[in-house]
Amino acid sequence: MSLTKKGNVSLDELRHAVHEAISQEESFTTRFARLSASSDRQGMIRMLVEMPCVVGLKPGDSYEGKSNARAAQLYEKSLGVTMEAGNEHAEEIRTCNILTQALFAASANSRIFLDAICERARRFYSLRAYASCLRDCECMLALPANFYDDSAENVRHFVQRRKECLQLERECSRKLETMSSKKRGARGRTSSTSSVASSSSSSRSSSSNTLPIVDGKPHSHFTSCSDSVKLQFDEARGRHLVATRDIKPGAVLIVDRPFSFSTDVPALDRNCLHCHATLKLEDSVRIPCRDCQTVIFCSEVCRKKAWETYHRYECSVFNYFFENSLNKRQQSSYLLLAYRTTVIQALQNSTETICDLNPDFLQYHANGNAKDKDDINEECANLGSKETYSPLDYRTVFQLVTHCVEMEPNMNLNRTSEAIFLAKCLISVLSKLDVVCTKETFISLAVAMLHHLQAINCNAYEIIENVHDEATRVWEPRNIGAAIYPTVSLVNHSCYPNVVRHSYANGIVVVRALRFIGIGKGCEILDCYGPHFLSESKLNRREFLWKKYRFLCGCDACKQNWKLPLSETTRYKCTACLEPMDLSIENAIVTNQRCVKCEKLVDLKKIEKQLRKSIQKRLNAIEKMYRGNYRDAMPLLFEHADFVNKHLAEPNIEGIKTEQCIVQCYNSLGSISV
Q1: pTM higher than 0.85, yes or no?
Q2: CB neighbours of 612 closer than 8 A, spacing ≥ 6?
Q3: What is the CA radius of gyration of the chain?
Q4: For residue 400, which phi and psi values (nearest 5 degrees)?
């Protein structure tokens, strides 16, 4: 099957052609399986790039470009909207939406773009959406004058629009300052009580503005961690984090920044491509990419940062990342994540005017099986012990497990095809930036892509935003994209995790303790990679974890085969030795029981009475949560969680209900949408 045509070859077509070619020659299959089993990425890449179906592959542009003709039509349509009496506000919003469509269709160096963005800024001003107006002014004022210096008339038009935006910018700044002063003055006069609706609204509008910090002191070697955790290693569990002291529920253990991130298709039209902020809130504004109609930004700052860092290397080939039939079986943006991980490091030293490949990065992937690989591994092994472990250090990404050896050859064949396709896309983009890549450079880039694809399969995490259901008063998680968090990746799995993750602005993830973690038994920090014992059977959990992560789970839920529904019978534990009591208050003949192990006398009747009082705290917390007072609910939940941890044996339904309430509270504090 020949794939020499330019611009119309999809990844699925390439993958099919590779499979077809290999299936026709048994020696190819045997050889590739041998390379796969030895984790020889360079060998796998070299084997495929010599195939006729790959040699001539030259991906062309694949993105939705600008259309000034369509932009002009939309702009004229916006000017023709009739303002009906009594419905002016809704019509203004409708007009802004039409102007937004015009902006995305228009080239940034066209007069129609200037007209549309200035008109939308004026409309935002009339709607008193001053923050949105300012963002449009910022976008327009960032446009370089040389975009319009091809004629004197265009220059005059640009200068006139610039003056209008400067005037609007001054007016908006004054309005916002006046509004801010009034709010500060009114704050002291406002009653501490408020309606359910206003309290809930306040919680959602302000919650995502504050990024938590780790509890205790920052770790001496891990820039993202508290000193309440440390790194350990053993053959069975590999690298993992354990507690260095007793940790209470709610404690912030990790605040990790993503090394790289991506956006799923459904979020492309509702979230900023760079910081992931929702663009469906009242004060949001959509800023277009200057080259494509596909992605959106919340501000000119995000647009510029994204362009300089990664988007200029992906914009013209953007559609390729999502035209993939395997998307249904994993994160839809995993190809984009692997591509960006490569781009961010391979082009680390590039500027807007100069584009250079990073030779240090290429060296990491130039000789996958060469002797200098041992030196690299030794260097990486010192991270977290002798050297600082930072999530923005590429060595921490390079160190992530790939399970290349354990994966089926057919899976590695798919990944190798994907890696070559992505490398071809990058080479195509770089050629337009006057970067000449040799065959060996291409091989190194493809090997890097393959390495990242394999690591992403078992190390990528979701970026989440939480959506509030007004009917049920429940925060539901919704995927935005995926990210690589090198520090969080050190945390092992449990089907009954003791920590919970939440996404914040700019893809930052915060890891908090979900229940008490002691320095004795069970001191390991444990996350959940997907299957929880509350939702999946032991067999299903183990099957999923083996196929994706290549380990057989040995957490308490699996070893003891916890099953749902859990018994409603309360099982107490001894507060001295922490062992479960053989008898509970429901079947005890006498109220005082002695622990079989340590013989401590336990008054079960007294504890039962205390439990009923403690449960009331959880119920009171739920009432506060229902009214939107999540911060006020958390202290009550933590108090109840402490009692449950001290007196009840696991698993218990009361502890699980409390943990679910705590998760809901933290859902309200992270990234949110409407």
Answers
A1: yes
A2: none
A3: 29
A4: -65, 145
